Backbone:
């Protein structure tokens, strides 16, 4: 999903990007999206994904917004990974740097609003504890 958001405020309208990718693929046609270049702060090239590119015939879409109710009919399994807000904030800052703390806080507000609107957790088929160590 990181390639599909158009910046820190992109979650609010990522469904349009998902539509151009998922709907054509579900119909057996190539889908596409505009990749967001986080360093340049702008949309970059168009990425095309053809059905033949999916070796198993499956596409895994992961990240905030990927479980949007708008495209629920196209999902086989919806997985919700849960971690407390402070853990998610710490992980984001560790990955991206402390200078982005305010952006991360605003992002978390957008996440909360998105998940409430789409009832993502309630619709999930699988719940995963995101605080457990990997492995």
Residues:
């Amino acid at each position: 999903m990181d390639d599909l958001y158009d910046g820190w405020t992109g979650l609010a309208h990522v469904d349009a990007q998902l539509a151009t990718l998922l709907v054509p693929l579900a119909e057996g046609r190539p889908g596409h999206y505009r990749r967001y270049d986080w360093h340049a702060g702008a949309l970059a090239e168009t990425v095309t994904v053809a059905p033949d590119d999916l070796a198993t015939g499956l596409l895994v879409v992961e990240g905030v917004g990927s479980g949007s109710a708008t495209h629920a009919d196209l999902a086989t399994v919806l997985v919700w990974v849960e971690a407390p807000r402070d853990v998610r904030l710490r992980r984001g800052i560790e990955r991206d740097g402390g200078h982005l703390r305010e952006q991360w806080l605003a992002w978390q507000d957008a996440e909360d609003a998105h998940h409430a609107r789409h009832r993502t957790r309630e619709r999930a088929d699988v719940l995963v504890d995101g605080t457990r160590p990997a492995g």
Q: What stands out?
A: The chain has one domain: 10-129. The mean pLDDT is 94. The longest strand covers residues 42-49. The CA atoms of residues 10 and 40 lie 15 Å apart.
